[in-house]
Design a protein that fits this description.
Strand content: 15-25%
Number of domains: 1
Number of strands: 7
Oligomer: single chain
CATH class: Alpha Beta
Distance between the termini: 33 Å
CATH superfamily: NAD(P)-binding Rossmann-like Domain
Number of helices: 9
Largest sheet: 7 strands, parallel
Length: 244
């Protein structure tokens, strides 16, 4: 993977950070971008300790001008953009009838519009290169839905549909677009769940354990590798068998 560059959104911590670390160990140069500037700086330092180049950019993926600037910085600093991982995401959970419009708008803006903004920006560079890999982090709830997550489920369902449309549009230029759909993964986002909710999730998982960020990172690393050059438009569930 010498001289290959991967840009991972929402990569200051959690699943995004695990993906960035995995790709760094595989020889990619990394663009770490997140809205949390302090954590971006610390993560870049950690990535560099793995022996690869890395830059960090504070960015709000809901703002197209910031996203365009992000990709321009990445190209100018590291020379190319070979991989995009759309990982940035938020939750604002509550029952549909109690959900403020602002919570709906915020989740759709980050999870779906953010993925659109970054995919559009990356495609402009990748089409000129006639190569590239785009991986979108969806969720199993984008497939099956979930009580109290109408906004999150809708956003991730939209990410899955966007993945398939982008895959069809960009395939003639040598660009593959795939999605992974994690289930119950141990992250900062799931730590706040009640023990009752956590156990309810575990009861649905045949493997009887939560997933780890590394479980997601390993699949992403495969999908961006040459071994996956003939795979596009797919959604791979990483859920311990939850929705098999």
């Amino acid at each position: 993977m010498e001289n290959k560059v991967a840009l991972v959104t929402g990569s200051a911590r959690g699943i995004g950070k695990a993906i960035a670390e995995k790709l760094a160990r595989n020889g990619y140069s990394l663009v770490i971008c997140d809205i949390r500037e302090d954590e971006v700086i610390s993560t870049v330092k950690e990535i560099k300790l793995l022996g690869t180049s890395a830059i960090g950019v504070k960015v709000d993926v809901t703002k197209a001008d910031e996203v365009d600037n992000l990709f321009e910085q990445a190209k100018n600093s590291l020379g190319s953009i070979d991989v995009l991982v759309n990982n940035a995401g938020i939750t604002r959970d509550t029952l549909l009838v109690r959900m403020p419009e602002s919570d709906w708008d915020a989740v759709i803006a980050v999870n779906l519009k953010g993925t659109f903004n970054c995919t559009k920006a990356a495609a402009k560079y990748m089409m000129k290169q006639r190569r590239g890999k785009i991986i979108n982090i969806a969720s199993v709830v984008g497939i099956i839905g979930n009580v109290g997550q109408a906004n999150y489920s809708a956003s991730k369902g939209g990410v899955i549909s966007l993945t398939k449309s982008a895959a069809k549009e960009l395939a003639p230029r040598g660009i593959t677009v795939n999605a992974v759909a994690p289930g119950y993964i141990e992250t900062e986002m799931t730590k706040v769940l009640s023990e009752e909710t956590k156990q309810a999730f575990l009861n649905l998982i045949p493997l009887k354990r939560a997933g780890l960020p590394a479980d997601v990172a390993n699949v992403v690393a495969f999908l961006v590798s040459p071994d996956a050059d003939y795979i596009t438009g797919q959604v791979i569930n990483i859920d311990g068998g939850m929705i098999m």
